[in-house]
Amino acid sequence: MSTMTDVPARRVPPLGGFNLTLLRIELFRMLRNRRTIIFTLILPAALLLTVGNQKGWQDTAGSGNVAAYILISMALYGAALTAAATGSMVALERAVGWSRQLRLTPLHPVAYIIVKALVALSMGALAILAVNVVGILQGKAEMPLHVWIEAAVVTLFCTLTFAALGVFVGYLVPSENAMQILGPGLALLSFLGGVFIPIDTYAEVVRYVAYWTPMYGVAEVARAPLTHDLPWFAIVNAVGWFAIFVAGAAWRMSKDTARV
């Protein structure tokens, strides 16, 4: 006679359920969202064009010029905003019950996080590509090719910080509030962290506050291939905020998972 002990345990799929089909579905789902396309392709490129006729763009900055410095900054902002929006989609998934459905499958939470990170990187790469294409067509940014490539790659990996922030906020607030918080919040952090305005133009008190903000460290890291200047405290800032946002996202995800 069969007993409950005869019921086989649910088999965990290879790689915790991670597969290219799931990744493709998640990526296409993001690309079908009109707001995502605006954040990814239109907004960052438009910001670059908006400040495209400023005086002093041809002044030297590191191994390039000020136009290249601003291009990298705009690419970082666009990619950060896009990655955060991608991560915050977990709020909508929770609201419609998709997260609950996934928790009933053998999909491992780590595999789910990896998929989200790869989608965020893909969307961030599109934002960076859009800004760089506009910068090339604009014809004002000047820097060696290897610096151009290095800055784009470093900027891309810096966006993981904001993908983690998006997931953290997505688990923390209702779906309708996630981007209402992240959009203005990232804009404010970008102003304060020296993305839109050089940090050395701020008053001393504001500058000291800016050193502690999440955008300051990643902005310095992203522009380091151009400026050849990367203070140690900028590295600590970038690594520290990345760790904080990842820990926050993992904590909120574990709380959410425990409800099933």
Automatic annotation (TrEMBL):
Q: What is its main location?
A: membrane
Give the transmembrane ranges. Answer: 36-54, 66-92, 113-136, 148-173, 185-210, 230-251
**InterPro entries per the UniProt record, alphabetical:** ABC2_TM (IPR013525), ABC_2_transport (IPR000412), Nod_factor_ABC_transporter (IPR051784)
Where does it localize?
Membrane
Q: Which keywords describe this protein according to UniProt?
A: Antibiotic resistance, Membrane, Transmembrane, Transmembrane helix
Q: How does it sit in the membrane?
A: Multi-pass membrane protein
> What residue stretches are annotated with the ABC-2 type transporter transmembrane domain?
21-223
Note one Pfam family from the annotation: ABC2_membrane
User: Record's PANTHER family?
Assistant: NODULATION PROTEIN J
This chain belongs to the protein called ABC transporter permease
